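Good morning,

Attaching, inline, the backbone tokens for the sequence recovery test we're adding to the shared suite. The designed sequence is right after.
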């Protein structure tokens, strides 16, 4: 499998990484959860950032909703709420 991936020119992504696309950038990126949270808290990512869910709960959901979801509708939304609370307390 590793050699097939190398032949096709792609890398495997850790299940702990966040796969996303910035609203202003068509490239798909990966970051550790800690790095993603840091980007969110710095304001470099917003709730509109597209998250690629890699563990849909059902095939029907994946077919109807796809895997690309705004961050505001995923578990990463808490990182943006945390930022809003920090800004409000400043």
């Amino acid at each position: 499998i590793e050699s097939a991936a190398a032949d096709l020119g792609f890398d495997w992504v850790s299940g702990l990484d966040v796969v996303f696309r910035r609203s202003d950038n068509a490239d798909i990126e990966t970051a550790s959860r800690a790095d993603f949270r840091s980007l969110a808290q710095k304001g470099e990512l917003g709730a509109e950032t597209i998250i690629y869910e890699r563990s849909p709960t059902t095939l029907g959901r994946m077919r109807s909703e796809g895997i690309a979801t705004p961050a505001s509708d995923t578990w990463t939304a808490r990182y943006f709420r945390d930022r809003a609370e920090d800004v409000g307390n400043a």
